[in-house]
Fold these 2 entries.
Entry 1:
Amino acid sequence: MFDWRWDFTWEILPRLLAATGNTLLAAGLGYAIAVVLGLAFALAQRTPYRSVTVVVREAIEFIRSTPLVLQIFFVFYVGPQFGIRLSPWTAGMIAIGLHYAAYLSEVYRGGLESVPKGQWEAATSLNLSTARTYFRVIIPQALPPSLAGMGNYLVGIFKDTPMLSVIGVAELMHTANAIGSETYRFLEPYTLVGVIFLLISLPTAAGIRLFETWVRRKLGMV
Amino acid sequence: MNAQYLSGFPLKLEGDPVPMVSFKKVTKSYGSLVVLDSLDLDIAEGEMVTIIGPSGSGKTTVLRMLMTLETINGGVIYVDGEPLTHMPSGNELVPANNRHLRRMRSKIGMCFQHFNLFPHMTALENCMEGPVHVLGLSKKEARERAEELLAMVGMADKRDQHPSRLSGGQQQRVAIARAMAMRPKVMLFDEVTSALDPEVIGEVTNVIRKLVAEHHLTMLMVTHQMGFAKDISDRVCFFYGGRIEEQGTPEELFGNPKRERTQQFLSAVKEAI
């Protein structure tokens, strides 16, 4: 009934570990895009230009209200009809980066709104420029309350990278599927994928908590 | 900000001496609630003016408007002879652009009830941020200036501490040093002792006394410390219902208040003590 084959397990492990590198790369790149773009989205919603605010707000709502897998398909398969031909990797990074940017912008928004009004007023009274106020006064204070949410989405984006397999990005899930269809054995590859995800997610989550404490201490806020 | 174009107000105040701060028919309202009703108030260079009055009388609004933290709905505020939130364009005053606002703001410093120090910066960094990044001082110059001011407020030994490690009185003293580091011509103190424990109020009021004695600053202060106001003010204004109900020297206002509302307020305050 329970036919686990260790020899097969050892045989496929190197291949899966190699694919783990791609999974980490996809998660890392996607997250880097999301972190920067998400901040841009959050700041764009605070500009005095109503048209900018409304467009960004609606775009975020649109992204958050449709499935990631659809967005991945859309960028990859619909793009070429408009003359935009992207490799699976590029299309995947754009889709997943945009998707998580929309979520992260909400995390940032909460963080930015948690900074007391008095901090803005102090910055005005010292005549700091708007850019200086944001990057030196407001964002450093918005960061600690945002870190928990940012960490959740880091683990989230990592766990969502298997969706990139649908357009042929050779990450873990894609490789496990390939092994399955070559050998007709699914138990070992899928179990290993689960274990690998677990072994990376759990320490990451713990690491984020440590990082949060470290940042608060570094900023003198504990 | 102020959408209205104004005519009938001088583009620049002339004469000798020009008041350091001048409110001309300044009105502020939130919807139908009028907070300040056509306020006229001149403050001479080097003068120390204290505003007292019941809560909701518009006293804090006066300071916040001067710091450009609140817009005004009517009238013009002049600082050092120039309109604050307006600028001349042809023969009329138009709403100021950001550049004008920043230039005017550089003349004014403010201390807040809740200090509003930047919590992620040390006392010294708090005092260096503006001088380095707004005034363009070198780090070395800014550091010297900040250390000098922290010494003046008695906080030299705490300069590397973050605000979370300081008491309220200590934070307020750092906040005063931070504002002074910008070398303002006008200093605003908005209920700077209201959030403090009674035993540390003295350390803050002593710093302000020192500023009055050693610096030729124009100061505008909102306070509930009547004794302190009496000691250090050149003039005291009693605000009621968005207007100056009565003003005069501390001796006149506290010793012989003429208006009934002033008398009522002062006796109520006395009872509370």
Note: Chain A has one domain: 6-218.
Entry 2:
Amino acid sequence: MSVAARIAGPDLHETSVAPRSRSRMLALVIALAFAAVGGQLVRLAWQNEDASTIRVSMMSSPANTLARPDIVDRNGRLLATDVQMPSLYADPLLIQDADEAAERLVRLFPQIDVRELRQSLADKSRRFVWVRRGLSPAMAQRVHNLGIPGLLFVDEIRRTYPAGRLGGHILGRVDIDNRGTGGIERYIDEIGASEAAVGARLSARAPVRLSLDLGVMHALDEELAGAMVRYEAAGAAGLVMDVLTGEVVASVSRPGVDPAVYEDALDPSRIDRIAAGTYELGSIMKLVTVAMALEMGRSLDSMVDTAEPLKAGRFTIEDLHPLGRPMSVSEVFIHSSNVGAGQLALSAGAATQKAFLQKLGLWSALKTEVSSGPAPQKPQQIGRIEQITLSFGHGLATTPLQFAAASAALMNGGTRVTPTFMALDGEAPVVRGERVVSARTSALLREVMRRNVTDPAGTGRRADVPGFEVGGKTGTAEMAAKGGYRKKSVLASFIGTFPSSEPRYVTLILLFEPKGQDVTGGEITAGRNAAPTTARIIERIAPLLGVPAKSL
Amino acid sequence: MRILNVVAVLLALSSAFLLYGLNYDTRMIERSLHVREREAERARADIAVLRAERAHLARPERIEPLARRLGLEPLSARHLLPGPGLAAGNITTSSTSVR
């Protein structure tokens, strides 16, 4: 309009108005320009942060790995952590002589198949070929020194386990992309504690604190290793559990697995004998049988008819050293009488026996953070013979972890214990589980456990440690093999607790197929091998666990 | 009126220069931020490696033989004395010997 007015030339009527409207127009345009500049400034200030992060993420190559939190033991000692490691890849297009490059690389990495590598390096249609992932810095330098063009490095995060084999069964393992495929590592992914990572970023999440104590684990591991040598055992396993919280303070199964060695986890001889294997545990199950009898109103002094061997169909159950007279309930426990335990079970009845085993969690699989647990092998129906064999630990195969949890409940005053591998908050008061046996029963069981160690005729007398009031029960179970049981090959076990006046921990020690030695008088019973091993272990771990010694 | 226009044009020019300068500074700051970020990242990675190495060196499996060579032994009941024992002064020395 104003332009048109100017072209139209001076006009008397318009000249008085035009300059004002023109200047107003100009002012408006300038004001708009300033507003635009101001707005742009504000926008830049606002978006600056986003803009810079976008650039960072575009610089590093996206990778579908997981950044994992550290895993530490209950005292904060590192068990698993992520580190950045260079991974070697090749760009075949840049490789001039694939044969020579492959040859020289294989000299550094003898594990690589040279033909396969040569083929993939010669394939000019590809621009990316992994050569080897997760190198040590020294190895990366040696590859660099080869001076082959077309070999490139990219940083990746890799899981390392500084404690080595200790705790390997519980930690589990991760795959090549740092995803948990077993044990606690898988649990971490399930609860969402790990995070999808771009490039070689390390996790900033708080560490996952386990209930394990590395020092106790080591003491247990070493003593079990010593016991395997001393008694020529094929395997050994042990665990220490807090009787109130169910925290597993130590769990060792030898031979163990190294979480960093993939093949270890596949070897069936290296399975976790504590949480993954099920066994007929033998006479330590009499603890449960006696508990049931006490729950039904019996006292430790009430008598059981053990004069005659027990007959059930074509089977005859006899004691190893029959006394030929009636025994009290505590004598049944201390002399580990199969006939006496059988009688106690028979007088309770099959339904009660099954219900009691169910209540203690021995009738179904036990789920922990580490695994969903194997289902116990149990009899289809409980007749007279099953009642008798169940009473002394045959015919029912459970995991030792399950049995330890049941024992912890029997020892702690009678409330259920749920085993866990995660550390509980030390400040928070312990939440007691539902009641499974009465406080009286628990007190009597503690008494009879202790008596089995202090009595000169007790099967557990070699488990005593002066000052720590060890109580316990031995078990020597013939191991099941094809077509029946093998007499000479046994599973020797010892369920222990200390201090038995007010138990804080239960221990369960298992020795697989120990041989008779001079030190054991040629015997293979648990009283001669598993019991003394328990004594050595408790002597070492009690001070670590802060259990005060009573004056002698 | 003309003065106003001149002032406005000058203002616009100076603000343009200011904006350019700010923009340039921001870029410089961003660049140094990236350098710092990368340094921090590298330091974090080094810390992770060192922590892992320290934990590996301090693993009980390795420490125990070293401690035993120094004449130390696992704590046992006979090393422990209940409270009143100390007051009575009946402290017994450990039977540990350094060969």
Note: The CA atoms of residues 453 and 461 of chain A lie 4 Å apart.
